[in-house]
Amino acid sequence: GTCYYLNIDLMILQWLQSNKQININHYANKKSAAESMLDIALLMANASQLKAVMEQGPSFGFYVPLIVLISISLALQIAVGVLLIFLVKYDLNNPRKHAKLNILNNLATGLVFIIVVVNIFITAFGVQKPSFPEKKP
User: Has keyword Cell division (predicted)?
Assistant: First the structure.
Protein backbone atom coordinates (compact mmCIF):
# COMPACT_ATOMS: atom_id res chain seq x y z
CA GLY A 1 0.00 0.00 0.00
CA THR A 2 2.43 2.67 1.21
CA CYS A 3 5.14 1.55 -1.21
CA TYR A 4 2.71 1.93 -4.13
CA TYR A 5 1.93 5.56 -3.21
CA LEU A 6 5.63 6.29 -2.70
CA ASN A 7 6.38 4.99 -6.21
CA ILE A 8 3.63 7.21 -7.69
CA ASP A 9 4.98 10.23 -5.79
CA LEU A 10 8.48 9.50 -7.11
CA MET A 11 7.14 9.18 -10.67
CA ILE A 12 5.31 12.53 -10.36
CA LEU A 13 8.42 14.17 -8.89
CA GLN A 14 10.57 12.82 -11.74
CA TRP A 15 8.05 14.06 -14.30
CA LEU A 16 7.96 17.52 -12.72
CA GLN A 17 11.75 17.68 -12.68
CA SER A 18 11.97 16.65 -16.33
CA ASN A 19 9.32 19.23 -17.30
CA LYS A 20 10.69 22.26 -15.46
CA GLN A 21 9.61 24.63 -18.20
CA ILE A 22 5.88 25.03 -17.70
CA ASN A 23 4.29 27.42 -20.16
CA ILE A 24 2.75 29.92 -17.76
CA ASN A 25 1.06 31.79 -20.61
CA HIS A 26 -0.73 28.63 -21.72
CA TYR A 27 -1.97 27.98 -18.17
CA ALA A 28 -3.08 31.58 -17.66
CA ASN A 29 -4.86 31.71 -21.01
CA LYS A 30 -6.79 28.52 -20.21
CA LYS A 31 -7.73 29.93 -16.81
CA SER A 32 -8.86 33.22 -18.33
CA ALA A 33 -10.90 31.39 -20.98
CA ALA A 34 -12.69 29.41 -18.28
CA GLU A 35 -13.38 32.60 -16.31
CA SER A 36 -14.71 34.24 -19.48
CA MET A 37 -17.12 31.37 -20.09
CA LEU A 38 -18.42 31.64 -16.53
CA ASP A 39 -18.72 35.41 -16.95
CA ILE A 40 -20.78 34.91 -20.13
CA ALA A 41 -23.05 32.40 -18.37
CA LEU A 42 -23.72 34.86 -15.53
CA LEU A 43 -24.19 37.69 -18.03
CA MET A 44 -26.90 35.67 -19.77
CA ALA A 45 -28.57 34.80 -16.44
CA ASN A 46 -28.61 38.47 -15.42
CA ALA A 47 -30.05 39.50 -18.79
CA SER A 48 -32.81 36.94 -18.28
CA GLN A 49 -33.45 38.25 -14.77
CA LEU A 50 -33.60 41.82 -16.08
CA LYS A 51 -36.17 40.75 -18.66
CA ALA A 52 -38.26 39.00 -15.98
CA VAL A 53 -38.22 42.08 -13.74
CA MET A 54 -39.16 44.37 -16.61
CA GLU A 55 -42.04 42.04 -17.56
CA GLN A 56 -43.38 42.31 -14.02
CA GLY A 57 -43.35 46.07 -14.31
CA PRO A 58 -43.09 48.88 -11.76
CA SER A 59 -45.92 47.40 -9.67
CA PHE A 60 -43.48 44.73 -8.46
CA GLY A 61 -42.31 45.69 -4.95
CA PHE A 62 -38.58 45.45 -5.61
CA TYR A 63 -38.67 46.70 -9.20
CA VAL A 64 -36.22 49.62 -8.83
CA PRO A 65 -33.73 47.88 -6.48
CA LEU A 66 -33.59 44.85 -8.77
CA ILE A 67 -33.14 46.96 -11.91
CA VAL A 68 -30.27 48.82 -10.20
CA LEU A 69 -28.62 45.66 -8.82
CA ILE A 70 -28.87 43.76 -12.10
CA SER A 71 -27.52 46.78 -13.99
CA ILE A 72 -24.56 47.03 -11.58
CA SER A 73 -23.89 43.32 -11.99
CA LEU A 74 -24.00 43.57 -15.78
CA ALA A 75 -21.67 46.60 -15.82
CA LEU A 76 -19.17 44.89 -13.50
CA GLN A 77 -19.26 41.72 -15.61
CA ILE A 78 -18.42 43.73 -18.71
CA ALA A 79 -15.53 45.36 -16.81
CA VAL A 80 -14.23 41.93 -15.74
CA GLY A 81 -14.51 40.71 -19.34
CA VAL A 82 -12.39 43.64 -20.53
CA LEU A 83 -9.85 42.99 -17.75
CA LEU A 84 -9.61 39.34 -18.77
CA ILE A 85 -8.87 40.41 -22.35
CA PHE A 86 -5.98 42.55 -21.07
CA LEU A 87 -4.73 39.73 -18.84
CA VAL A 88 -4.57 37.32 -21.78
CA LYS A 89 -2.82 39.94 -23.94
CA TYR A 90 0.28 40.29 -21.74
CA ASP A 91 3.20 37.85 -21.68
CA LEU A 92 3.50 36.28 -18.23
CA ASN A 93 7.05 35.15 -18.95
CA ASN A 94 8.16 38.79 -19.00
CA PRO A 95 9.11 39.66 -15.37
CA ARG A 96 8.64 43.39 -16.07
CA LYS A 97 4.91 42.76 -16.63
CA HIS A 98 4.38 40.80 -13.40
CA ALA A 99 3.52 43.81 -11.22
CA LYS A 100 0.98 45.16 -13.71
CA LEU A 101 -0.54 41.70 -14.26
CA ASN A 102 -0.76 41.16 -10.50
CA ILE A 103 -2.69 44.42 -10.09
CA LEU A 104 -5.05 43.55 -12.96
CA ASN A 105 -5.58 40.04 -11.58
CA ASN A 106 -6.31 41.38 -8.08
CA LEU A 107 -8.73 43.94 -9.57
CA ALA A 108 -10.53 41.23 -11.54
CA THR A 109 -10.76 39.04 -8.44
CA GLY A 110 -12.16 41.92 -6.38
CA LEU A 111 -14.73 42.75 -9.04
CA VAL A 112 -15.80 39.09 -9.25
CA PHE A 113 -16.30 39.10 -5.47
CA ILE A 114 -18.48 42.22 -5.72
CA ILE A 115 -20.46 40.60 -8.56
CA VAL A 116 -21.11 37.55 -6.36
CA VAL A 117 -22.33 39.74 -3.49
CA VAL A 118 -24.58 41.78 -5.81
CA ASN A 119 -26.05 38.57 -7.24
CA ILE A 120 -26.75 37.28 -3.73
CA PHE A 121 -28.88 40.39 -3.17
CA ILE A 122 -30.57 39.91 -6.56
CA THR A 123 -31.48 36.38 -5.51
CA ALA A 124 -32.63 37.58 -2.08
CA PHE A 125 -35.05 40.12 -3.61
CA GLY A 126 -36.43 37.31 -5.73
CA VAL A 127 -36.86 37.56 -9.46
CA GLN A 128 -39.94 35.58 -10.42
CA LYS A 129 -41.35 35.09 -13.84
CA PRO A 130 -44.76 36.69 -14.16
CA SER A 131 -47.52 34.21 -13.47
CA PHE A 132 -50.41 34.21 -15.88
CA PRO A 133 -53.84 33.11 -14.67
CA GLU A 134 -54.86 29.68 -15.85
CA LYS A 135 -57.44 29.63 -18.59
CA LYS A 136 -60.53 27.64 -17.79
CA PRO A 137 -62.08 25.74 -20.68
Answer: no
